[in-house]
Amino acid sequence: MLVVLKESAKEVGREAARIVASSLRANPKSVLGLATGSTPLGMYEELIALHKSTGLDFSQATSFNLDEYLGLAPDDPQSFHYFMHSNFFSKVNFAADKIHIPDGAFRKDYSAYCEQYERAIRSAGGIDLQILGIGRNGHIGFNEPNSSLASRTRLKELTQETIEDNKRFFPQGAEIPECAITMGIGTILDARRILILATGKSKAASVAKAIEGPISSSVSASALQLHPDVTFIIDEDAAYGLTQRDYYRRVLELTKKYTPEKLT
Ligand code: PGA
To answer: Looking at ligand 1, which residue's alpha carbon is closest to its atom 8?
Structure first.
């Protein structure tokens, strides 16, 4: 597990975008796992800027988003469909038929729908690079505490804490969805490479548990310790609870010296 410490949230976004761009240049047909929320916004802004300034090409790439609120139609301004289109897809040259986001308006056989999402990921060849944020409760995607570490895409009940955290995205008085469709932890762990981003003091405790705590379903992100190619990109505030910060900096310097390909 690589831990990349950055001075600011802006630098976190820039570093994540640099890695996404280099994966895309190496393989224009990359399958990207994408995330919503405030944390990856800086990364999307940087990718849009790279698209405009250097022609970074998304036309052959495929994407699978982590999750969507149950009950929100794609044109609902609070939906993750809307978020992705307004903050990213409408500003780059992603092909519409290569974009996949779980359908929150789906109302019938959820498990058949979720199995179909899993099949679509498999038939695209699996996810090459998965982007994640982390919740204050350690969730990745909407895999709330006590999610099975082997879980697959499914309907998940949101905790009160997550509902409270995400209230800021909804108009005052709006009903907040109580469930979501989310890729599972097992789905995420199948990705070939994982980047997880965190910024701000409110994430310090969950970041410390994810990186230095025991692997536990109480902290979904701790399951990433089982994956051979995970990079945490975090700012100073989010790194606050880590006890081994100096060592992580040394690992990064030595990685640059001996195995720089790991950082591209
Ligand atoms: P945030 O959400 O980026 O809006 O903080 C992260 C998450 O809950 O995964």
So the answer is: 135
